């Protein structure tokens, strides 16, 4: 696992990419991830990590034409939450910007400026959520934590 903190990123940033979230999460803190979906993409993910747990897993799935969210606690995934938007907000070969805001009760997620979903916190120790991980079939262009 390699941790990097250079932002904006060079176009050849390694995937998966890890970076610290200074001070961990707190209400009103936002994280932005921008990149380009690879033309042959099947899936990619954005994880907000707390040690070996994943507090928030955002997983666009082109093979299912949906976005799935979940939480991994003690090596066990919880129930999947599917976005209820009318259309898949990501497109193969296209750029994207994901904006995640931490609130008291959960995360708000927008893609390319459009609200996508709300996700209730399943891990409550927000300051302990201190690593951003991005991987899968994308090329990163910018992160802001």
Give the key terms:
single chain, 145 residues, mainly beta, 7-stranded antiparallel beta sheet, 5-stranded antiparallel beta sheet, 12 strands, 0% helix, globular, disordered N terminus
Radius of gyration: 14 Å
Q: Report the order of strands and helices.
A: EEEEEEEEEEEE
Tally of helical runs: 0
The coarse silhouette is: globular
Number of separate strands: 12
Biggest sheet details: 7 strands, antiparallel
> What is the residue-mean pLDDT, rounded to a whole number?
91
Q: Uncertain regions: pLDDT < 50 for 5+ in a row?
A: 1-7
Describe the 3D structure.
It is built from no helices and twelve strands. It is mostly beta strands. The strands form two sheets. Strands 1, 3, 4, 5, 6, 7 and 11 form a seven-stranded antiparallel β-sheet that branches. Strands 10-9-8-2-12 form a five-stranded antiparallel β-sheet, with no helix packed on it. It starts with 16 loop residues before the first strand and ends with a strand. The N terminus is likely disordered.
Short description:
The chain has strands at residues 17-20, 30-37, 44-50, 53-61, 66-73, 76-77, 81-82, 95-102, 106-111, 114-120, 131-136, 138-144. By secondary structure, the protein is mainly beta. The strands form two sheets. Strands 1, 3, 4, 5, 6, 7 and 11 form a seven-stranded antiparallel β-sheet that branches.
């Amino acid at each position: 696992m390699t941790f990097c903190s250079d932002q904006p990123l060079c176009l050849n940033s390694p995937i998966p990419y890890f970076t610290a979230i200074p001070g961990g999460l707190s209400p009103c803190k936002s994280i932005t991830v921008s990149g380009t979906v690879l033309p042959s993409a099947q899936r990619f993910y954005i994880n907000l990590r707390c040690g070996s747990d994943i507090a928030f897993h955002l997983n666009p799935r082109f093979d299912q034409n949906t976005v799935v969210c979940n939480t991994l606690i003690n090596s066990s995934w919880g129930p999947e939450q599917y976005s209820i938007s009318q259309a898949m907000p990501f497109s193969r070969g296209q750029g994207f910007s994901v904006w995640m805001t931490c609130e008291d009760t959960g995360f708000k997620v927008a893609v390319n400026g459009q609200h996508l979903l709300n996700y209730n916190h399943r891990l409550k120790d927000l300051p302990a959520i201190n690593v951003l991980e991005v991987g899968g079939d994308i090329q990163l262009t910018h992160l802001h934590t």
